[in-house]
């Protein structure tokens, strides 16, 4: 069965939650016998790969402009999928889902994965929010099959669109790979067990400025004087927000690693005292699941998507409450480092791949 994937910037080693989702999922589906092709946006490709882990890679040109790159790329990917005689076109995220009716008119069978209500993200203006809402509507209405990555999204699609047949298939946690890289830590100026970690794209809805302010309060109080703040990530599109965030982070002594993957990321996850995610919007954060996979204490905002993970009350704080966030970090830092054993059973990528495979097979029947 030939599967063509679009709606992602691409794989491998490209920043983003949808990108990590695809990087974990599609090699597993290839191992299950599917012929998988992922359409990449050429701006993000740092290599000339034509195949990776048995997944075919096709780079497609698209303008590097936040407002139109996804839709232009997806339109071109749909035409390519038609010419390839794809059995299934799998579209990820709301913006790309705008083209679902076109794909259906071309005779393609479409699976649409809803990763979260992107129109609620702070970075979008009124026009973009409207387009994303239409993407959700068209994707849910015209796709043959719909996948929701969290219970909250699944419930919303049933209530809002009457789509009672959508499949709840959660994001997964990458397999931990504990790593020790003393030279990298020396380069960053940090010590194992002596830093607070956050990892994400530098966009407004991640609320990293709240974490920077909380860390500044922690430093001003004189508590945990050796503790550093490490922000792993960057912005796709440098703008006033990301420049301001980086400036404030440097002022308070935070460490900015830039986008990291592989051994460097594994080392940061292995050595962190805790993981913090102050977001105002999430679908089901793979970064959070990854931190949990490494047994890190986590401190996260109490938004609905985070509460669905079902952690103990001590892990949550009221969104935007910087003083409570600072106190929570202080409490964790005062305790001796110790791993936490989370139940990660439902976040197993091998199980998730088989669930997606079942969706494809039922569609062909």
Give the termini distance in whole angstroms: 12 Å
Number of helices: 13
Order of helices and strands: EHEEEHEHEHEHEHEHEHEHEHEHEHH
Low-confidence stretches: none
Question: What does this molecule look like?
Answer:
This protein has 13 helices and 14 strands. An eight-stranded mixed β-sheet has the order 3-4-2-1-5-6-7-8, with helices on both faces. Strands 11-10-9-12-13-14 form a six-stranded parallel β-sheet, sandwiched between helices. β12, α10 (286-293) and β13 form a beta-alpha-beta unit. The model has no long low-confidence stretch (mean pLDDT 93). The protein is globular. By secondary structure, it is an alpha/beta fold. The longest helix is centred in the middle third of the chain and has 17 residues, at 126-142. The protein has helices at 17-31, 69-83, 100-105, 126-142, 151-161, 182-188, 208-220, 240-251, 262-271, 286-293, 304-307, 322-334, 349-364, and strands at 2-6, 35-41, 51-52, 55-60, 88-92, 109-114, 145-148, 167-168, 195-199, 228-232, 255-258, 274-277, 298-301, 316-317. The relative contact order is 0.13.
């Amino acid at each position: 069965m030939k599967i063509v994937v679009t709606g992602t910037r691409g794989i491998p080693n490209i920043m983003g939650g949808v990108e990590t989702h695809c990087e974990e999922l599609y090699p597993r589906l290839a191992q299950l016998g599917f012929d998988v092709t992922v359409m990449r946006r050429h701006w993000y490709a740092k290599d000339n790969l034509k195949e990776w882990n048995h997944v075919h890679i096709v780079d497609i040109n698209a303008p590097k402009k936040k407002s139109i790159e996804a839709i232009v790329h997806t339109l071109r990917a749909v035409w390519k999928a038609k010419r390839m005689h794809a059995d299934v076109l799998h579209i990820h995220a709301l913006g790309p889902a705008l083209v679902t009716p076109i794909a259906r008119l071309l005779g393609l069978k479409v699976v649409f994965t809803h990763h979260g209500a992107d129109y609620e993200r702070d970075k979008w203006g009124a026009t973009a929010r409207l387009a994303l809402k239409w993407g959700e509507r068209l994707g849910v209405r015209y796709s043959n099959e719909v996948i929701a990555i969290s219970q909250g999204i699944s419930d919303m699609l049933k209530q809002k669109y009457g789509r009672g047949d959508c499949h709840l298939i959660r994001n997964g946690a990458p397999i931990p790979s504990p790593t020790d890289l003393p030279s990298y830590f020396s380069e960053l100026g940090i010590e194992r067990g002596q830093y607070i970690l956050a990892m994400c794209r530098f966009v407004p809805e991640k609320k990293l400025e709240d974490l920077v302010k909380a860390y500044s309060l922690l430093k001003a109080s004189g508590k945990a004087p050796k503790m550093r703040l490490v922000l792993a990530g960057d912005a796709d599109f440098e703008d006033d927000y990301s420049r301001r965030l980086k400036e404030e982070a440097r002022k308070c002594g935070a460490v900015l690693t830039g986008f990291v993957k592989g051994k460097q990321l594994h080392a940061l996850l292995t050595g962190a005292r805790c993981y913090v995610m102050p977001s105002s919007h999430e679908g089901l954060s793979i970064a959070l699941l990854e931190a949990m996979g490494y047994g890190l204490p986590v401190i996260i905002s109490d938004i609905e998507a985070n509460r669905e993970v079902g952690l103990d009350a001590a892990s949550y704080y009221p969104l935007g409450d910087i003083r409570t966030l600072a106190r929570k970090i202080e409490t964790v830092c005062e305790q001796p480092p110790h791993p936490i054993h989370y139940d990660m059973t439902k976040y197993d990528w091998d199980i998730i791949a088989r669930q997606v495979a079942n969706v494809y097979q039922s569609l062909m029947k």
